[in-house]
Design a protein that fits this description.
The protein is mainly alpha-helical. The chain has helices at 18-28, 53-71, 80-99, and strands at residues 3-7, 13-17. Strand 1 (3-7) and strand 2 (13-17) form a beta hairpin. The radius of gyration is 33 Å and the shape is elongated. The termini are far apart. The relative contact order is 0.05.
Length: 100
C-alpha cells in the first residue's frame, strides 16, 4: 500500500494508507456514494427557550421607522409649479455653497 500524505488546516502532515482512506469513505457514504444522512448532527433540545434578541431589536427599529414616517404624514403635497420653484431655490443654494 502506498501511503497518502497531505497537510491539514493546522499545518500538520497526515499520512494514511489507501486502505484506511477507503474504510473511512465507506463508513461515511451510502451505496449511491452520497453522504449518509444518519451521520448529520442534529441540535439537541436544551429544554429552555430563550427569546431572540434580534426579533426584539427588529420590532424596535420598525416602530422607530413608523414614528419617523408619522412626521411627514400631515404635510401638504406641493403642486408641480411649487415643486419646481422649490427645486430651483435648492439648486441656487447648493451652487452658492459649492462656490465657497
Amino acid at each position: 500500500m502506498v501511503p497518502k500524505t497531505w497537510q491539514d488546516a493546522y499545518g500538520d502532515w497526515i499520512t494514511k494508507t489507501a486502505e484506511e482512506i477507503s474504510a473511512c469513505l465507506n463508513a461515511m457514504l451510502d451505496e449511491k456514494a452520497k453522504v449518509d444522512s444518519s451521520l448529520r448532527s442534529h441540535k439537541k433540545n436544551t429544554g429552555s427557550k430563550k427569546k431572540n434578541k434580534w426579533k426584539k431589536n427588529k420590532n424596535k427599529k420598525k416602530n422607530q421607522n413608523q414614528k419617523k414616517n408619522q412626521k411627514w404624514k400631515n404635510q401638504e403635497k406641493l403642486g408641480a409649479e411649487e415643486w419646481k420653484a422649490k427645486q430651483e431655490r435648492r439648486k441656487q443654494r447648493l451652487a452658492q455653497l459649492n462656490r465657497k
